[in-house]
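Q: Sequence in, structure out?
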Amino acid sequence: MRLTSGPAHSLVQLDTIPLGDWRALCDRALEPNGYYLPDWEAAVNASARGRTDTSALCVWNDGPPARLIGLMPVTSLRRAYKVPLPALVSGHPYGTLCTPLVDRDLAEPAVTQLLQAARQAGARALLLRDVALEGAVMQAISSALAREGLKPRVLQSYSRACLDATGDGDDMLRDALGPKKLKELRRQRHRLAEHGPVSFDIARTPRQVALALEAFLELEASGWKGRRGTALIQHEGDAAFIRRAAPALAANSQCEVVTLRSGDTAVASGVVLRHQSRAFFFKLGVDERYAKYSPGVQLTIALTRHLCADPAIASADSTAAPDHPMINPIWRGRLVIGDVLLPLRARDPLVELIHAALAARRGALDVARRGVHILRGLRTR
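A: Exactly. Output:
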């Protein structure tokens, strides 16, 4: 797929976008996305496995002064899924949200020109992965397509936990968990305190975040993610990405590392991104030696109180899998996320072929997953 450029929109390499313009767009974004913040995405693009050398659809207004009003990291369908058809796919950062950045004051021209930039790059369709289906950006995209007689096609969707942080944290926890569960968790916390005083620490400055991050990485690798080989620290490029991204974001008050300790021992730790009024719970690591005290739940309860007490935060996205057994009972709000195919031409047979190829791929993956579950079940008998 060829690279094109013009005065209003272009497809460019991600690392060529001026960071000042990107940050300014984030400040004006119609919908927050912590995983498309420039310091995060630049670090992902520099070293994270399978996520480097990403391109981006960029849209500029006419000015003066000219300013960036739309940005969508993308890759080719061939690279994303090994499907050799002319489509672009939203670039997948570390984190499960790919909602594009769109200027809230110029949303209509921004999304219209993003679609046009994809056409000029030779794409016949755009695949948005992990986009907020009920968000303002998706509504603007649907309206832009409707004006051209086109409709988005939702390929799959699910709901994941989110937090309404505008109320009192203790009230929210009582409503979500009930007095009996909270009493049990208090009992577990008291038992944990027998190993040392329990504290909840928040690392905010770049230096604090860099130090706390190392404890998080060790905790993550000590558990099931380490046994599966998916912990960040187990891969040089992934470790380099998070060690670069977290302190850089902390310099702009966009990243915290939260840690639950028993005495001097970190028993649970999590990385939290912040964009506008929304927090994003990126990852959690726990010391499984303390599993009977529910360290992950204890950390999430403390984090809930922390976010609800922060007037700058209105909501938090768990960025967790659907039906997540730990966070779903605590954060009772739900965010609808999905993959959406955007046709770029009316009655285009290539769009039908792209749609069919994606459906076939998903069907094959579902069969493979069922096979893995069956094999795991047989091994545990």
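Residues 69 and 103 are 5 Å apart (CA to CA).
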